[in-house]
Amino acid sequence: MRPAVFLDRDGTINEQMGYINHLSRFHLLPRVGEAIRLLNERRIPVVVTTNQSGLARGYFPESLLSAVHARMIAELAVAGARLDGIYVCPHHPEAKEERYRLACRCRKPKPGLFVQAAAELELDLGKSYVVGDRWADLKAAAACGAKGVLVLTGYGRGDLEYIGPTQSVQPHWVADDLYEAVAWIIADLAGQAS
After folding, report:
1. Does residue 10 have an active-site annotation?
2. Sheet of 85-89, strands arranged across
3. What are the pLDDT digits (tens) for 55-99?
4. Arch. (CATH architecture) of 9-123+153-180
């Protein structure tokens, strides 16, 4: 059982664009490839966990979601980085498509995606980290016993200022971007984080 780093997608790995309803709207954030490569070099599993209610709402087809993830994998590979898994929640209680209309256990902040990944990839959630730009990511971290790290990319800066002060769950660390978050995680795993 190994610790892992779970990453939110939109606003953490790529620019927050609302719904990515066309492949041209997918853009990696700076230093993301380098950050993930640092984890790969230390053999720390990197898993993407993402809510994609745009699929449920009929804003884009499954084929586009697959194309976006293929583009993400290809662009990370150029930087010498790779992912160990991508876990998607396509559900929403008000989904346009009936097959996605349910109150599921996988939509963050619920821990279903993390539990599934941990079982399939033999990961120790209690020693893992969740990095994201929304409080839902931090709540998901708390729900599965992981450490939550907030990045100030995407919605992060606004969430920190306007949502965070009223929340009982707080981040273990706040980082400017994914690279800074990964640097802290590596130090924390080594017992050297401030």
Report:
1. yes
2. 85-89, 46-51, 5-7, 129-132, 147-151, 173-175
3. 888 899 999 999 999 999 999 999 999 999 999 999 888 788 888
4. 3-Layer(aba) Sandwich (3.40)
